[in-house]
Amino acid sequence: MLALAAAVMAISSPPPSTARLDGCPEDTVVPLSYSAATITHNNLGGQGPDSGAQKMSIVNVAENIDLEVVGDSGYDLGSECSASGFPSGSTEIVKFALRRGSTSVVSYTFINSTTSQPVLLPAFYFSIIDLDEDPANGISQTLLAEGFSAYVLDPQTDLAASCTSGAEPCSAAGVLIRSQVEGGVGNPSDPWALTAAQQRASVLFVFRNTSSFSLRHPHARR
Question: Where does the UniProt annotation place the signal sequence (predicted)?
Protein backbone atom coordinates (compact mmCIF):
# COMPACT_ATOMS: atom_id res chain seq x y z
CA MET A 1 0.00 0.00 0.00
CA LEU A 2 1.92 2.97 -1.32
CA ALA A 3 0.67 5.66 1.03
CA LEU A 4 2.04 3.72 3.98
CA ALA A 5 5.41 3.11 2.39
CA ALA A 6 5.34 -0.62 2.01
CA ALA A 7 2.10 -2.06 3.26
CA VAL A 8 0.51 -5.18 1.83
CA MET A 9 -3.24 -5.60 1.82
CA ALA A 10 -4.81 -9.01 2.37
CA ILE A 11 -8.34 -10.24 1.82
CA SER A 12 -9.75 -13.70 2.32
CA SER A 13 -12.20 -13.91 -0.55
CA PRO A 14 -11.48 -14.17 -4.27
CA PRO A 15 -11.24 -10.89 -6.17
CA PRO A 16 -14.06 -10.23 -8.65
CA SER A 17 -12.03 -11.17 -11.71
CA THR A 18 -11.26 -14.67 -10.38
CA ALA A 19 -13.38 -17.56 -11.60
CA ARG A 20 -14.09 -20.63 -9.48
CA LEU A 21 -11.19 -23.04 -9.78
CA ASP A 22 -11.66 -26.54 -11.15
CA GLY A 23 -11.11 -29.23 -8.54
CA CYS A 24 -12.26 -27.01 -5.68
CA PRO A 25 -16.01 -27.65 -5.30
CA GLU A 26 -17.84 -24.74 -3.73
CA ASP A 27 -19.34 -26.89 -0.97
CA THR A 28 -15.84 -27.60 0.40
CA VAL A 29 -14.68 -23.97 0.43
CA VAL A 30 -14.97 -22.20 3.78
CA PRO A 31 -16.37 -18.71 3.04
CA LEU A 32 -14.00 -16.34 4.81
CA SER A 33 -14.79 -12.66 5.18
CA TYR A 34 -13.66 -9.66 7.18
CA SER A 35 -16.99 -7.84 6.81
CA ALA A 36 -18.34 -9.08 10.15
CA ALA A 37 -14.94 -9.56 11.79
CA THR A 38 -13.42 -7.58 14.64
CA ILE A 39 -9.78 -7.04 15.58
CA THR A 40 -9.77 -7.73 19.31
CA HIS A 41 -6.00 -7.49 19.80
CA ASN A 42 -3.54 -5.60 17.59
CA ASN A 43 0.14 -5.85 18.47
CA LEU A 44 1.68 -7.50 15.42
CA GLY A 45 5.41 -7.88 15.97
CA GLY A 46 5.13 -5.89 19.19
CA GLN A 47 4.57 -2.73 17.12
CA GLY A 48 1.25 -1.77 18.74
CA PRO A 49 -1.05 -0.03 19.08
CA ASP A 50 -1.99 -2.59 21.76
CA SER A 51 0.43 -4.06 24.30
CA GLY A 52 0.80 -7.64 25.48
CA ALA A 53 0.91 -10.66 23.18
CA GLN A 54 2.73 -9.90 19.92
CA LYS A 55 0.00 -10.88 17.50
CA MET A 56 -3.14 -9.71 15.75
CA SER A 57 -6.39 -11.48 16.65
CA ILE A 58 -9.24 -11.18 14.14
CA VAL A 59 -12.42 -12.83 15.40
CA ASN A 60 -15.36 -14.08 13.35
CA VAL A 61 -13.72 -14.43 9.92
CA ALA A 62 -16.09 -17.39 9.43
CA GLU A 63 -18.66 -19.17 11.57
CA ASN A 64 -16.92 -20.09 14.84
CA ILE A 65 -13.51 -19.34 13.28
CA ASP A 66 -10.99 -16.64 14.19
CA LEU A 67 -7.69 -15.72 12.54
CA GLU A 68 -4.46 -15.23 14.47
CA VAL A 69 -1.64 -13.36 12.72
CA VAL A 70 1.96 -13.40 14.03
CA GLY A 71 5.02 -11.65 12.61
CA ASP A 72 8.56 -12.91 13.18
CA SER A 73 11.44 -10.90 14.69
CA GLY A 74 11.97 -9.12 11.36
CA TYR A 75 8.57 -7.45 11.46
CA ASP A 76 9.13 -3.70 11.75
CA LEU A 77 6.88 -0.76 10.96
CA GLY A 78 9.63 1.83 11.10
CA SER A 79 8.73 5.49 11.46
CA GLU A 80 6.93 5.81 8.12
CA CYS A 81 4.16 3.23 8.63
CA SER A 82 0.99 3.24 10.69
CA ALA A 83 -0.03 0.06 12.50
CA SER A 84 -1.48 -2.88 10.64
CA GLY A 85 -5.25 -3.33 10.84
CA PHE A 86 -8.44 -2.25 9.10
CA PRO A 87 -7.90 0.80 6.87
CA SER A 88 -10.37 3.62 7.35
CA GLY A 89 -13.59 2.96 5.48
CA SER A 90 -12.82 -0.67 4.59
CA THR A 91 -14.92 -3.67 5.59
CA GLU A 92 -13.19 -6.44 3.61
CA ILE A 93 -9.50 -5.55 3.76
CA VAL A 94 -6.86 -5.93 6.45
CA LYS A 95 -3.71 -3.90 5.95
CA PHE A 96 -0.27 -5.26 6.80
CA ALA A 97 2.41 -2.59 6.95
CA LEU A 98 6.16 -3.23 6.73
CA ARG A 99 9.13 -0.86 6.82
CA ARG A 100 10.92 -0.21 3.53
CA GLY A 101 13.81 -2.59 2.87
CA SER A 102 12.87 -5.03 5.65
CA THR A 103 11.88 -8.70 5.46
CA SER A 104 9.37 -10.55 7.60
CA VAL A 105 7.62 -13.90 7.74
CA VAL A 106 3.98 -13.48 8.73
CA SER A 107 2.08 -16.57 9.93
CA TYR A 108 -1.69 -16.99 9.72
CA THR A 109 -3.50 -19.57 11.88
CA PHE A 110 -7.23 -20.32 11.92
CA ILE A 111 -8.55 -20.83 15.45
CA ASN A 112 -11.74 -22.50 16.67
CA SER A 113 -13.59 -19.77 18.54
CA THR A 114 -14.90 -22.21 21.16
CA THR A 115 -11.82 -24.32 21.87
CA SER A 116 -9.13 -21.71 21.04
CA GLN A 117 -7.29 -24.46 19.15
CA PRO A 118 -6.13 -24.48 15.51
CA VAL A 119 -8.82 -25.73 13.12
CA LEU A 120 -8.21 -27.48 9.79
CA LEU A 121 -10.12 -25.91 6.89
CA PRO A 122 -10.94 -28.18 3.91
CA ALA A 123 -10.39 -25.36 1.40
CA PHE A 124 -10.30 -21.57 1.34
CA TYR A 125 -9.25 -18.62 -0.81
CA PHE A 126 -6.76 -16.00 0.38
CA SER A 127 -5.79 -12.99 -1.72
CA ILE A 128 -2.98 -10.48 -1.46
CA ILE A 129 -3.70 -7.20 -3.19
CA ASP A 130 -1.79 -3.96 -3.76
CA LEU A 131 1.63 -5.45 -4.54
CA ASP A 132 3.29 -2.45 -6.15
CA GLU A 133 6.39 -0.24 -5.98
CA ASP A 134 7.44 2.87 -4.11
CA PRO A 135 8.36 5.31 -6.91
CA ALA A 136 10.51 7.37 -4.53
CA ASN A 137 13.16 4.69 -4.16
CA GLY A 138 12.28 1.86 -6.56
CA ILE A 139 11.63 -0.71 -3.82
CA SER A 140 9.13 -3.27 -5.10
CA GLN A 141 6.95 -5.45 -2.92
CA THR A 142 7.56 -9.18 -3.17
CA LEU A 143 5.92 -12.23 -1.66
CA LEU A 144 7.15 -15.79 -1.06
CA ALA A 145 4.37 -18.32 -0.51
CA GLU A 146 4.46 -22.07 0.16
CA GLY A 147 1.99 -24.82 0.99
CA PHE A 148 -0.82 -23.68 -1.30
CA SER A 149 -2.68 -25.85 -3.81
CA ALA A 150 -2.92 -23.27 -6.59
CA TYR A 151 -2.51 -19.58 -7.29
CA VAL A 152 -4.17 -17.27 -9.80
CA LEU A 153 -2.93 -14.04 -11.37
CA ASP A 154 -4.83 -11.61 -13.54
CA PRO A 155 -4.47 -12.49 -17.26
CA GLN A 156 -2.76 -9.11 -17.77
CA THR A 157 -0.84 -9.27 -14.49
CA ASP A 158 1.89 -6.82 -13.54
CA LEU A 159 3.39 -9.42 -11.18
CA ALA A 160 6.25 -11.76 -12.04
CA ALA A 161 5.98 -15.29 -10.60
CA SER A 162 8.77 -17.86 -10.40
CA CYS A 163 8.87 -21.27 -8.74
CA THR A 164 11.42 -21.47 -5.95
CA SER A 165 12.35 -24.99 -7.05
CA GLY A 166 12.81 -23.86 -10.64
CA ALA A 167 10.24 -26.39 -11.87
CA GLU A 168 6.48 -26.53 -12.16
CA PRO A 169 4.16 -26.89 -10.33
CA CYS A 170 5.08 -24.09 -7.97
CA SER A 171 2.85 -25.49 -5.22
CA ALA A 172 5.27 -28.39 -4.77
CA ALA A 173 7.83 -26.02 -3.25
CA GLY A 174 6.78 -22.39 -3.36
CA VAL A 175 6.38 -19.35 -5.55
CA LEU A 176 8.12 -15.98 -5.45
CA ILE A 177 5.90 -13.16 -6.69
CA ARG A 178 7.39 -9.75 -7.38
CA SER A 179 5.82 -6.49 -8.42
CA GLN A 180 6.76 -5.11 -11.82
CA VAL A 181 4.57 -2.04 -11.43
CA GLU A 182 6.52 1.17 -11.93
CA GLY A 183 4.91 3.29 -9.24
CA GLY A 184 1.83 2.67 -7.13
CA VAL A 185 -1.61 1.49 -8.20
CA GLY A 186 -3.59 3.41 -5.59
CA ASN A 187 -4.72 2.04 -2.25
CA PRO A 188 -7.87 -0.10 -2.64
CA SER A 189 -10.79 0.30 -0.25
CA ASP A 190 -13.13 -2.35 -1.69
CA PRO A 191 -11.71 -5.70 -2.90
CA TRP A 192 -14.84 -6.28 -4.96
CA ALA A 193 -14.36 -3.04 -6.87
CA LEU A 194 -10.69 -3.10 -7.79
CA THR A 195 -9.51 -1.02 -10.72
CA ALA A 196 -7.87 -2.84 -13.62
CA ALA A 197 -4.46 -1.74 -12.33
CA GLN A 198 -5.24 -3.01 -8.82
CA GLN A 199 -6.37 -6.38 -10.20
CA ARG A 200 -3.10 -6.66 -12.12
CA ALA A 201 -1.26 -6.15 -8.80
CA SER A 202 -3.14 -8.94 -6.97
CA VAL A 203 -2.71 -12.68 -6.46
CA LEU A 204 -5.18 -15.27 -5.16
CA PHE A 205 -4.09 -18.46 -3.40
CA VAL A 206 -6.11 -21.64 -2.87
CA PHE A 207 -5.28 -23.63 0.26
CA ARG A 208 -6.61 -27.09 1.08
CA ASN A 209 -6.63 -29.02 4.37
CA THR A 210 -4.77 -26.23 6.09
CA SER A 211 -4.95 -24.68 9.54
CA SER A 212 -1.88 -22.45 9.29
CA PHE A 213 0.33 -20.96 6.59
CA SER A 214 3.10 -18.38 6.32
CA LEU A 215 3.95 -15.68 3.80
CA ARG A 216 7.41 -14.14 3.54
CA HIS A 217 7.47 -10.46 2.66
CA PRO A 218 10.90 -9.35 1.44
CA HIS A 219 11.36 -5.97 -0.25
CA ALA A 220 13.62 -5.77 -3.30
CA ARG A 221 14.96 -2.93 -5.40
CA ARG A 222 14.15 -3.04 -9.10
Answer: 1-19
